[in-house]
UniProtKB/TrEMBL annotation:
Gene3D superfamilies: NAD(P)-binding Rossmann-like Domain, UDP-galactose 4-epimerase, domain 1
UniProt entry tagged with the keyword Oxidoreductase: yes
The entry's keywords: NADP, Oxidoreductase
The protein's name: Nucleoside-diphosphate-sugar epimerase
InterPro entries noted in UniProt: NAD(P)-bd_dom_sf, NmrA-like, NmrA/Isoflavone_reductase-like
UniProt xrefs under Pfam families: NmrA (PF05368)
Residues annotated as domain NmrA-like: 19-242
Amino acid sequence: MAQHQSNPPLRPGAAPAPIVLAGATGDLGFRIAQELLKRGAAVRALVRVGNTKPEVTVLQDLGADIVPVDFNSVTALTKACAGAACVVSALSGLREVIVGTQKRLLDAAVAAGVPRFIPSDFCIDYTRLPAGSNRNLDLRREFNQRLDQAPIHATSILNGMFTDLLTGQAPVVLFGLKRVLYYGDADQPLDFTTTANTAEFTAAAALDPTTPRYLRVAGEVASIRGLQKAATAATGTPFKLLRVGGLWVLGTMIKVTKTLMPTTDDVFPPWQGMQYLHNMFTGLPKLTPLDNARYPEIRWTPVREVLAARK
Ligand SMILES: NC(=O)c1ccc[n+]([C@@H]2O[C@H](COP(=O)([O-])OP(=O)(O)OC[C@H]3O[C@@H](n4cnc5c(N)ncnc54)[C@H](OP(=O)(O)O)[C@@H]3O)[C@@H](O)[C@H]2O)c1
């Protein structure tokens, strides 16, 4: 696997072209901003007008250029993208954001002559999933079709599931019951990457002008049996497996949950998380080949370490 310099060479005396970051006040975006700053990059964080989150002050204190901007205006976004080396999106939302806002940001990047764009994908490999199998991933596919038609170099980063979710949100490792719950095959390999590792990799990729269209990473590839071992090692207590049924059982549960739940504009309603797990358990969106070795300075955090650090 080739290893890559993440910092492009600069003309002597020239200031580095900034990395424009949208979504810098979010969980992933805030970490990407910090990783970029650690690497000596100039960061221009586009934030919504009136955003008073503490992250804004922290990033400003760390040296980021904070630019409040009207995300509904391509003209304003174009001005905000001027002179950038790359636009990174860590936005989160439904159609209005993933297709709408990101398309305006893309149009602005193209109009401003920015050479590179990294969309807010950060998920399992939706390119290998049939359309219609996951609402949130369908939105990414739709945006990326537009991105592929734009005169800009695009790189999507695919990282599987954030490992951090295993300590709470994802109902897989049940700490109270000492069980690892699953559907289908306990030996199906699954991709996990921490939010922190995803941010490090994204920062390195943003500073690397030679990135391909897709970069795939997994901090750890673990099957359900692997999670069982990790949970046992992390807690010092034996975990058992709990197979609820085949994938069709989970599929039925998703349908029932969707029917019973009122329509919501929540980005991650319970059925969305279940759908994500269903997709992973099918093995279709398994990430391969992995680009983990591309930036050798990154140390990938294993699942066991994340489970052990659970508060
Ligand atoms: N693979 C996984 O397991 C996994 C898990 C979680 C997330 N993700 C992905 O990671 C990415 C980032 O998610 P996150 O959890 O960091 O999201 P988050 O914490 O909710 O942050 C979202 C960011 O987007 C901004 N934003 C939202 N709507 C906007 C709009 N209409 N105009 C301008 N800015 C807007 C927010 O700004 P404000 O501060 O103004 O609200 C915030 O900075 C997403 O692609 C998400 O799907 C992946």
